[in-house]
Amino acid sequence: MIKLQEYQPGETVLNAGQLGKGFCILEEGTLEVIRDEKVLSEIDTKGSIFGELSEILGLKRDADIRAKTLAKVRHVEENISDIVTKNPKVAVKLIKTLGRRLYRMNRIASKEVATKETHVETSHGIEILVVDDKPNIITQISDICAKSNWVVKSAADDMSALRACNESSFNAILISMALPNDMAIDLRRKLKTTHKVVSTPVIGMIVKGDESSLKKALNAGFSECIEKPFDSTKTEATLYKVMNLDSSARYFSFEKDYLLFKVPSELTNFVITDIKDNMDERIKNTINEGIGKLIIDVSSLDEIEEEAIEVVGEFAEKIEDLSLPMQGAIIAKGDDAEMWNNLDGCEEWQVLSSLDEAIEALSTT
After folding, report:
1. Can you tell me the distance from the alpha carbon of 213 to that of 224, in angstroms, rounded to the nearest whole number?
2. Which residue did the predictor score with more confidence, 251 or 69?
3. For residue 251, what are the contacts with CB-CB under 8 A and spacing of at least 6?
4. From the CB of residue 241, how many other CB atoms can be counted at a distance below 10 Å?
5. 3-class DSSP assignment, residue 278
6. pLDDT tens per residue across span 129-173
7. What whole-number distance in Å separates Cα of residue 360 and Cα of residue 356?
8. Burial letters for 185-199: b for 16+ Cβ neighbours within 10 Å, e otherwise?
9. In whole angstroms, what is the distance from residue 327 CA to residue 79 CA?
10. CATH of 120-242, one of 3.30.565.10, 3.40.50.2300, 2.40.50.140, 3.30.70.3040
11. At 28, is the pLDDT very low, low, confident or very high (cuts 50, 70, 90)?
């Protein structure tokens, strides 16, 4: 049986918890897929098929589908196997629908892996292999990676590096271009056929200004190069990039029911640009997660410089411009702590001296 039904905004088209039969086709309007009162997605394309998985999998529906606007839906209330037997073209339509849905979900899942919302989740289990015969270089890279809780293992030459890669997989491999002869290039070539690291990004370490080594590394298939002496921030950002991790997790993170923006003590031009480039995405993710609390931690700053005021002010203004119903707190120390209330968007925020105090204050307001 096929019936056309009209729905007013807010009316339920399909209920969660029911075992479905057949499927539905959207004729007009926009529908929302809702679970636990959270909108997961929208259905707004005329001719879209939905509601078929319940019968195909033999499972009760785990989400409600409601009309967002005035909508017309055609309900096909017949066993799918019978429908497909009568009209094989329906099977093709269903396969295409499921394929498109799976493709979208894979894209969403891939993006979520690359943009995990907490620093701990993003960096959990990250292991990096550094191939260099200079102990100081190993120590410097280890210190940089320690800030992100990444584990660094080292190898002094190509043979020990290959043994390590045959025994373990790594998230990134750093190779010094200063290794004797063409050891770095030969090692890169061998890694391409080493099963456990065949897809692992390989980064060359070169002396600043050594254009010849840079060109040689890139031609050999190195993903990126970092320069010695190491700029801690740029090196860290490069590693985040090649490992497809969210670099802004160094500044922004979701902790329970609030967004924490930790302003770093060193605000170089590179860091400021990195923070600003990620502000909009972080705000969007905050809205999407339904989070209404924000804590800005400026306690690591030795002095209140113009750069810090600019970064914090711009972030607060973006929140204010969106008219978000967000509670805010600032963690600051020193005689000038109350100064942060002078920034646009921060006038009503509480200024506290520790994260625990900020969390407690926001939980009682």
Report:
1. 12
2. 69
3. 261, 262, 263, 264, 274, 275, 278
4. 14
5. helix
6. 999 999 999 999 999 998 888 999 999 999 999 999 999 999 999
7. 6
8. bebbeebeebeebee
9. 51
10. 3.40.50.2300
11. very high
Residue among 1, 5, 3, 12 nearest 72 (CA): 5
Q: Which pLDDT does position 100 carry in this prediction?
A: 64
pLDDT digit string (tens) for 83-134?
A: 888 888 777 777 777 766 665 555 444 444 444 333 333 344 799 999 999 9
Phi (first) and psi of residue 85, to 5 degrees: -65, -40
Mean pLDDT of the region 18-23: 87
251-363 belongs to which CATH class?
alpha beta
Name the DSSP class of 148. Answer: T
Six token digits for residue 355: 């994260």
Residue 50 β-bridge partners = 24
Tell me the pLDDT tens digit for each residue of 247-291.
777 788 888 789 899 988 888 887 888 888 888 888 888 888 888
* Spatial CA neighbour of 129 closest among 166, 158, 164: 164
In the chain, where does the domain assigned CATH 3.30.750.24 lie? 251-363
Fold of 2-114: Jelly Rolls (2.60.120)
Assign 365 a pLDDT band (cuts: 50, 70, 90): low
Contact predicate 157/128, CB 8 Å: no
Residue 206 corresponds to which amino acid? I
Interacting residues of 290 by C-beta distance below 8 A, sequence separation 6+: 38
Q: What is the full DSSP assignment across 205-251?
A: EEETT-HHHHHHHHHTT-SEEEEESP-HHHHHHHHHHHTT--GGGGT
